[in-house]
Amino acid sequence: MALSNSKDLKLAVLIDADNVPYSNVKGMMEEITKFGTPTTKRIYADWTKPNSNGWKGVLLEHAITPIQQYSYTVGKNSSDSALIIDAMDLLYSGKLDGFCIVSSDSDFTRLAIRLRESGMKVIGIGEKKTPNSFIVACDRFIYIEVLDGAIQKKKSPKPTATTTSDAKKAVEKPAEKALAKIDKATIELIEATIEDIEDDDGWAFLGDVGNMIVKKKPEFDPRNYGFSKLTPMLKSLTDILEIDERESDKKGIKHVYVRLRFN
Questions:
Q1: Could you tell me where the DSSP H helices lie in the chain?
Q2: Which of 9, 214, 218, 245 could bond 141 through an S-S bridge, CB–CB 3.0 to 4.6 Å?
């Protein structure tokens, strides 16, 4: 569920290094390209500190410009002010369509609000501990934990002889585990959104449903619930939803519609 006309968006990516492990940068940059083209990429930290070792290769690989910000006081993230000042300078340059702010710090809440007031699209990326104030200030917020490389995948066990019943159970277990994560509030959000945009027969286009949900809840992402995309997530809710896949003008492409299933 990328932002509308995302491929044309010119984005500034501003990263608070104090809040992002360098091992997550690759997956993060790949995620950002789904929303637009990152024309400016900067990362802020005190690079004289020993814990900055390990960043060099990552920054070179992704052409991210490191911005030095000395720690003038103990216990305060000094990168915040430098990032905010640069963001405002970039805003007034008139060369961008949006910003991607990578941080889990609520100090950037006012910045996100200000950028959106100026017509900028704002995408936030941070850990699940990110305060809600910063999350809702963004057009879209993505948790680092769901990105590729952020979670180590378990190695698949060696194949052994199994019965058909055993194989079926093995396939069902991951889905059952994922379904358990879809909380009541999220289901109510999905139901309310479908009702908001349904036609006279109760059908709503899946793409419109996804976009509307993100407007209501910027951090909504099917990956948070164990699904790669919205379609399989909604297909798992067969007790409350009906899915209709309709042929489109383009061969091999189907339009998916969804409506509430009333007993």
A1: 25-32, 55-62, 79-93, 109-117, 132-136, 164-179, 184-197, 206-216, 230-235
A2: 218
Q: Which amino acid is present at 112?
A: A
Q: How far is 202 from 207, CA to CA, in rounded Å?
A: 15
Both tokens assigned to 258: 């969804």
Show Cβ contacts of residue 145 under 8 Å, excluding neighbours closer than 6 positions.
Answer: 127, 128, 151
Cβ within 8 Å of residue 181, ≥6 positions away: 224, 225, 226
Q: What's the CATH code, domain 10-146?
A: 3.40.50.1010
Mean pLDDT by 10 residues, the chain (263 residues): 65 90 89 94 88 83 90 58 94 95 93 97 95 96 86 45 46 40 91 94 94 95 92 92 87 88 69
Q: What pLDDT score was predicted for residue 262?
A: 75
Fold of 184-260: Nucleotidyltransferase; domain 5 (3.30.420)
Instruction: Say whether 169 sits in a helix, a strand or coil.
Output: helix
pLDDT on residue 14:
97
CB proximity list for 49: less than 8 A, separation 6 or greater: 71
Neighbours of 57 (CB within 10 A): 9
Confidence (pLDDT) at 220: 94
